[in-house]
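In response to the reviewer comment on reproducibility (Comment 2.3), we provide here a single inverse folding case reported in full, input and output, so that an independent group could reproduce the run without further information from us. The structure tokens appear first.
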């Protein structure tokens, strides 16, 4: 799905008031101080209407003018649905605007009932068009156009010069405008407030399923930032999302996992709280039960984020029978497409543990003793062997894709110390390795002929050769 950049024109936090928000504001502002007044006056067909000698151009020009009226100066009236915004359309303050990265279209919808009310009030009052307010009403826009037309009609070459100077005066450096935007006396909605709003939306029993999913979808964008994820935790939002994993709606499970995966990512504080909030059990339950593949995919992603660099969670994972659950995923027909992801997770866990074992041997000062102690208590390798993962990993080498094979070969290498005996006694593994060796010898030769002397396929061949040597 495309990742929309979501923002709220009237409620931008300073940090988010960046490129897009600025652009939107500046564009609207410039259209009145610059584009309309300066860029291409003839296009507006306002200068020489009276002097036109033929009827044809006049007609044409009038049409152009009307088009400008409706297209450029129209204030878009959003509804509760996302709708594409046409170039040049102004948006009432308080609308929800996002950039659809797939279509490139800006889309807009109503934000809030209460905000709409405020905005309607603003419309009735007909605020003055001013750089210092970000509310442009259709009345403002029309009167601005009317003034422009008046000015344009009177225009002579001399006046044109004067107007250009005026435009130049109005056309201030972007830095200056930015400063003014920062000083804007508008309601600033911080990331925290946005997250609270989204959580309330999601947590509210009066929200529809679509609204809940949309809230989670938007929330995911915010929790990528470590600080935001920790803020989510501070007001109890994380637990609400974790509880979402219990929903009877598969989509809610899926999008709750989507948010959690982003929130856990390299964020130890959040990872710890999530374990205490029961996230691990819930994730495993989803993986172990009948669920749509899309939900399981995101849940597996969240599980990876939760376990990574967090030995305590890894211990709990093993205690709760996590390896058994992953085995089920790899062996079930409906979920075997997840096998490579599962293998990648196991590979990461194995190498992470090995890395810490090495650090321990070197007695480095960088790692806390508790963490080393915790890694020591992650009894991953015996668990893998006992539960038949030597066999499972060996059989996954039959996968057809190069990158899947690459991952499996890596994992076989990482498990060599644990599974060597098993691998040696597995006739199918030797056959598979031998046939892969032949296949990649041919491919690596072709690769070499194409001028790649350190190619990907040669690397794969190298791993196969190594493995065969080790198993001899
Ligand atoms: C979510 O809703 C429940 C019940 O409606 C309420 O008790 C809880 O405080 C809410 N949580 C948040 C973080 O708003
Ligand atoms: C969520 O579901 C699990 C079982 O899947 C159950 O043990 C737990 O009590 C439920 N939690 C909530 C908050 O409903």
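Designed residues, in position order:
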């Amino acid at each position: 799905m495309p990742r929309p950049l979501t923002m709220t024109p009237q409620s931008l936090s300073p940090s988010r008031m960046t490129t897009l928000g600025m652009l939107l504001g500046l564009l609207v502002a410039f259209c009145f101080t610059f584009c309309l007044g300066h860029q291409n006056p003839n296009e507006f067909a306002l200068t020489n209407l009276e002097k036109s000698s033929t009827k044809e151009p006049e007609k044409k020009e009038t049409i152009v003018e009307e088009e400008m009226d409706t297209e450029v100066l129209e204030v878009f009236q959003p509804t509760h649905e996302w709708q594409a915004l046409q170039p040049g359309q102004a948006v009432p303050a308080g609308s929800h605007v996002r950039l659809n990265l797939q279509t490139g279209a800006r889309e807009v919808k109503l934000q809030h009932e209460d905000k709409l009310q405020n905005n309607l009030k603003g419309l009735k009052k007909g605020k003055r068009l001013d750089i210092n307010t970000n509310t442009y009403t259709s009345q403002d826009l029309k009167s601005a156009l009317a003034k422009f037309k008046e000015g344009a009609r009177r225009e002579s070459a001399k006046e044109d010069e004067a107007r250009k100077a005026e435009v130049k005066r109005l056309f201030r450096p972007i830095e200056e405008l930015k400063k003014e935007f920062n000083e804007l006396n508008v309601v600033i909605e911080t990331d925290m407030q946005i997250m609270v709003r989204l959580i309330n939306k999601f947590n509210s029993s009066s929200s529809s399923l679509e609204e809940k999913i949309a809230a989670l979808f938007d929330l995911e964008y915010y929790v990528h930032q470590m600080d935001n994820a920790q803020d989510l935790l501070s007001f109890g939002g994380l637990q609400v999302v974790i509880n979402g994993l219990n929903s009877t709606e598969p989509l809610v499970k899926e999008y709750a996992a989507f948010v959690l995966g982003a929130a856990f990512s390299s964020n130890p504080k959040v990872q710890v709280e999530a374990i205490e909030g029961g996230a691990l059990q819930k994730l495993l339950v989803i993986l172990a039960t009948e669920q749509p593949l899309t939900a399981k995919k995101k849940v597996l992603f969240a599980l990876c984020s939760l376990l990574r660099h967090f030995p305590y969670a890894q211990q709990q994972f093993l205690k709760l029978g996590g390896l058994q659950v992953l085995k089920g995923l790899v062996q079930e027909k409906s979920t075997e497409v997840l096998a490579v992801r599962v293998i990648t997770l196991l590979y990461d866990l194995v190498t992470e543990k090995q890395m810490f074992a090495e650090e321990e041997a070197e007695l480095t000062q960088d790692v806390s003793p508790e963490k080393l102690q915790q890694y020591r208590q992650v009894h991953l390798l015996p668990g893998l062997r006992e539960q038949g993962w030597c066999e499972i990993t060996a059989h996954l080498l039959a996968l057809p894709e190069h990158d899947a094979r690459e991952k499996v070969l890596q994992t076989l290498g990482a498990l060599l110390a644990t599974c060597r005996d098993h691998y040696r006694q597995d006739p199918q593994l030797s056959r598979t390795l031998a046939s892969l060796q032949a296949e990649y010898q041919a491919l690596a030769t072709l690769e070499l002929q194409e001028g790649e002397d350190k190619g990907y396929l040669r690397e794969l061949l190298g791993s196969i050769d190594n493995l065969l040597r080790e198993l001899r």
